[in-house]
Amino acid sequence: MRRYFVIGFMGLLGLLDESKILAQKPDFIVPDNGNFVSAIQTANTRADFSRRYTILVRRGTHFSEGTQELISTRVKTADGADSTIFFPSPIVKLVAPRVTIMGEDMDATIVENRPVYEGIGITSTLFVDGADSTIIKDITLFCNFQNEAMAFANRSVALRESRCKGNYLKNVRLLSTQDTYYTNGGGDTTLDSCDIHGTVDFICGGGSVRFNSCTLYLEPRGRKGSRDVICAPATNVDELGYIFKNCTIVGSPEQDGRYHLARPWRNQPTCVFLNTRMMLLPSPDGYREMHGTLPRLFAEYGSVDKDGNPVDCSQRKTTFKNKAGETVKIGYSPVLSETEMKKY
Asked: In angstroms, rounded to a whole number, what is the distance separating the alpha carbons of residues 236 and 99?
């Protein structure tokens, strides 16, 4: 664990001198020099990757129209049969390292796409693919799946990261419903003071991801009895996992006492909540099962309610079913000791 923390922290040294980042003259201004898509394409094709490339996005809503690359998805035809269709990708993909994407204001600077088909791999407003040392600041990324009455039940990704090291987000709002922030393919990212909105598994995937002083916003599900789930980690044993530190959980009153903090998606995932202020309380069991995956560690430390009182964690889930359907008791306490907490 400690090794991955050092890698993440050291990867940010020399990268996060914010005054230098802000003082650097932008290489591309949206919309003055073109749209958001052309800004990313220019960053990807620049000659010198050793130098940081800065994109400034001005206030306003900027539509991300993706590329003309065709991607496919499976749909049901009118007679109920499965069919494969091909359509232009709505995804804008950043593949070059050392790029800063900087808005003028998180609330007023919005990059939005409107995918027609749902899917975790085909909808992201921005896909950061192997682009190490990416910095994103003061901006909203919005995946607006608006053509479906039950959009909260469909997968629509605002930001996807894959195989990236040393990425950093500050004052970034990620807006969607299910699978809002997808961290597949490992990687190492730190988020400071970000807002992440969603319904089901709205933070999901693998890697070593630290969430510092972030707001986790539970969106309404639109039907009685449906529970939100904040995250579905799929992290490996050699990854730090998802570490939420000094974060705040807010959102729709319908979720008070009902949502879950996490459910294990794949591999042997780790998810830790440290000193979380829960303006809405989760279900007493805290966690759910998923596909027979057993968590390596799902735990918390110092959770408090909206009034600052300690949260009762005595009923947190301590058994999970494995892939054979057998009930397995976890080998750890869902409440960390102070010594265990300091590892994170």
From this structure: 27
AA letter at 136:
I
Give percent helix, percent strand, percent coil of the chain, each to the nearest 5.
Answer: 10, 40, 50
Phi, psi of 91, rounded to the nearest 5 degrees: -90, 135
Structural domain total, the chain: 1
pLDDT in tens, 10-63: 445 445 566 666 667 999 999 999 999 999 999 999 999 999 999 999 999 999
Give dist(CA 216, CA 289) in Å, integer. 21
pLDDT (tens digit, 9 = 90+) per residue, 305-329?
Answer: 999 999 999 999 999 999 999 999 9
- Cα–Cα nearest to 200, from 182, 180, 173: 180
What is the residue range of 76's domain?
A: 2-341
User: What CATH number is attached to the domain comprising 307?
Assistant: 2.160.20.10
